Amino acid sequence: MSFASFIPRRRSAPVLAPPVTETTSIAAEMIAESPADSDQSTEDAETLSAVFAAMNAVSDNPESVPARAETTPEEAAIQVPEAPARAVAEAFVSEAASPVSAPEPANPADDPGIDAAAPGPSGDDPITDAIAATLSDASPDVAQPGPRSGAPLRLRLGQIARSVRHLRRRLSRPDPFLAATLAPVPLIAAALIFGGWFALLAFAVITVLTFALDELGDRTRTGTPAKGQEFPVTQQLSVILAATHGLLLALGLFALSGGIALGFAPWCLAFLSLGLWLGQVSNSNAHELIHSADARLRRAGGAIFCSLLFGHHISAHRLVHHRFVATPDDPNSADAGESFWAFLPRAWIGSFVAGYEMERALMRPRFGRKARRLHPYAAQIGTSALFLVLIGLFLGVPGIFVWLLLCAHAQLQLLLSDYVQHYGLVRGKLPGGRTEPVGPGHAWNAPHVFSGLAMLNAPRHSDHHQRPGRPYPQLGLDPGVPMLPHSLPVMATAALVPAVWRRMMDPRVTAQTRRRIAAAGLPSASAGLPHGLVQATSRLRSG
Q1: pLDDT digit string (tens) for 5-32?
Q2: What is the pLDDT of residues 378-395, one digit of tens each?
Q3: Helix axes 196-204, 184-194, angle to 10 degrees
Q4: Residue-number span of the structural domain to which 532 is assigned
Q5: By CB distance 3.0 to 4.6 Å, which of 44, 119, 462, 510 could disulfide with 443?
Q6: DSSP secondary-structure letter at 370?
Q7: Against a cut of 0.85, is the pTM above it?
Q8: How many Å apart are CA 202 and CA 199, to the nearest integer?
Q9: Does residue 184 share a domain with residue 265?
């Protein structure tokens, strides 16, 4: 809605308004009735307040109103009786809600729809002039450009002003995703620059503080967030995190490769802190970006993965993992009883090969569509090679070495997430032989608040697999979905020790498998014991 739309347009007959005080009170009443949580209603209320403030100014200072000529017989013939106060107020509201009309002609006689005798914003109607001057932030005494030349400029300026206010209003709202994802960044930067106690503090915040906040937070909330509770500038935060990734990675490579003198202990702590942020926050953001409907955002997410030597994940995740999750055809779904260290090479190599094959299949011409000339892997590998060349030119061999270590650290965390979130869960076979659709029981979830915010709701994994295109603030946590006993970062740490992991997770996988087998009507003799877990899941998978 434009400010220009609030300026009364010329009518074929003037309407005599009632006393301003009465109209103002009615306007205040109408403003109070508007919804308080509506941004548009707020803007309308502010504009109406400005309108009637100008009317009051004119009413309180009658000397400022120019003397009006005596009514001519022609004007008397077209005047109408005094309108009720509410009708006048509603007329102003309808004017505000109506779309902006085309600029009126310079000469009213050129437009047959306008009565030349009707007063307009040219000094004949002081109230109208005062309203127009208030809305244009100018004095009524200052000459304004004509409708043909000035209206488009005011319209553009009004649109820009509204856009700025709208973005500022949304960015000013406190948001937990923004705080959780960006809070460690200044500490990590300080650790890379100054070392010392900053390195210890950064590592403590991203590990100990995250664990404490997860344990103290509310873990009973389930369901999809209500409308209006989601992060209002989702894409903006993703762009901010992508830019932060580039800056923090560049600073980390420079500092850790010898550009800044750090002691051994601060170097290790700063390296671990940066790697944890890249693996947990930036990886989650890149994952969100590659699922975006905007091609520019998908390219930004791809650039993040390529900067971590994991570009094939762009293809493998979308084309393989989401299609074949919880089946033997998905290399990123861990089998029951499989350790993480056995899963790691199988998942990395398998996803690289499967993603390549899927992209090659899509390149074949079909349905009259031409084949793509460039394999996506060529662009992904080329982008990673470009990062390698740039790092080698500016930082030399030490920079390349540190980069490879950071990439390995970040990739390790992403593969740990896949391992933890799909361990032992399988999709059964339907009577016709087809695999059952992806459901809420095919991913492990975590209800912990702070790590969920820092990882952009990635622990709400069941909902993501059921609705991959749903933005992260809208991901829900339905009751009855498989739940991890601890937060995702804690479980990822436990997965590094296979004995600890199996002691924590095998009983839960067994119980989940028994429920699924019972629901499918299959024999479940082997599903009640941990040592029979592999056989039970195999039975469920084969139907």
Answers
A1: 433 333 333 333 444 444 444 444 444 4
A2: 999 999 999 999 999 999
A3: 150
A4: 497-543
A5: 462
A6: P
A7: no
A8: 5
A9: yes
